[in-house]
Design goal:
This protein has 299 residues and is an alpha+beta fold. The protein has nine helices and eight strands.
Length: 299
């Protein structure tokens, strides 16, 4: 389940799109509504607009949400009263968990795609004239969608299942794309830090713990492949140091992490043990250069 949210200024056009019952391809069905007159799309839009006029300084009082479900869940949403009721129930729960209450809305189902989906239009100006906040909307939405997907037993797409046309990626995008999915694939089959490190070594991926200044405390982790380096937290949230510790366990329990050490693949050179650590015990020969050669900036 995913939800795409857009903010708009005009109710008329959005209502006509969401509840377009004349379009035979869409076959729109109004599943639920609250606080609006549903005689026609015009009366629905007018109802929204009258309430929005309580806060005339708000230039974009319209929220349009597309709630889409995986084609794997098509049997959960048959084209009948039972399927419509479940879709409306989930849409209402989405609003509730997003903090959207005490306001006007309509929920309409469309049938113009292979995957089940519906459209939600609601008024940002609630019934008491207060503005419904959309602060941190994107982050909150992702969490709510994951929660509802799990609660209703809907299909969870694998983390790295999204396909993209690689030929359209720029070189720096392709490097990040390849590193991200290679590392996520390694994490999927790893049960410990040693497993994770061993798989990364086989793929030619370096891993380094980043520390706070003048301290041995680990503050993050970085990955490098083919002279391209990026922090794990910027690569994917599941590859941040804290997330990796939650998945693989306490790193200190498996690996003895000394200052001035970095994890490298076996072919990286300078490895002094089977784990591929660089060990610069001689202070006169400590490495001052980074563990990778920075790539040239694109002009």
């Amino acid at each position: 389940m995913i939800a795409k949210i857009k903010t708009r200024a005009d109710f008329g056009g959005i209502v006509n799109y969401a509840n377009d019952q004349k379009n035979k391809k869409k076959c729109a069905i109004l599943l639920a509504h609250e606080g609006v007159c549903v005689i026609s799309n015009k009366t629905i839009a007018d109802s929204f607009q009258i309430q929005a006029s309580m806060r005339p300084k708000v230039k974009s009082p319209v929220k349009h949400v597309s709630l889409a479900f995986s084609s794997q869940d098509i049997n959960r949403f048959p084209d009948n009263e039972e399927g419509d009721a479940l879709m409306a129930e989930i849409a209402k729960k989405w609003m509730e968990q997003m903090g959207i209450r005490n306001t006007q809305y309509i929920i309409a189902r469309h049938h113009d795609t292979k995957h089940p989906h519906c459209h939600l239009v609601f008024n940002r100006i609630d019934n008491d004239g207060n503005l419904i906040s959309d602060s941190n909307e994107r982050i909150h939405n992702a969490k709510v969608c994951r929660t509802l997907t799990k609660e209703y037993g809907l299909y969870f797409a694998p983390k790295n299942s999204k396909t993209r046309n690689k030929s359209r990626l720029r070189p720096y995008q392709l490097r990040k794309y390849n590193l991200r999915f290679a590392t996520l694939d390694a994490l999927t089959v790893s049960r410990s830090w040693n497993d994770f490190l061993g798989i990364l070594k086989g793929l030619g991926i370096d891993m380094r713990f980043n520390r706070t200044d003048n301290s041995d405390k680990i503050r993050g982790i970085s990955f490098c492949q083919n002279e391209y380096s990026i922090a794990g937290s910027k690569l994917d949230r599941d590859l941040s140091f804290n997330s990796l510790c939650a998945t693989l366990g306490n790193v200190a329990a498996e690996l003895v992490v000394q200052p001035h050490q970095a994890i490298t693949p076996s072919g990286g050179g300078g490895a002094s043990n089977e784990l591929g650590w660089r060990d610069d015990k001689d202070k006169d020969n400590q490495r001052t250069e980074p563990f990778y050669k920075p790539s040239k900036r694109r002009r």
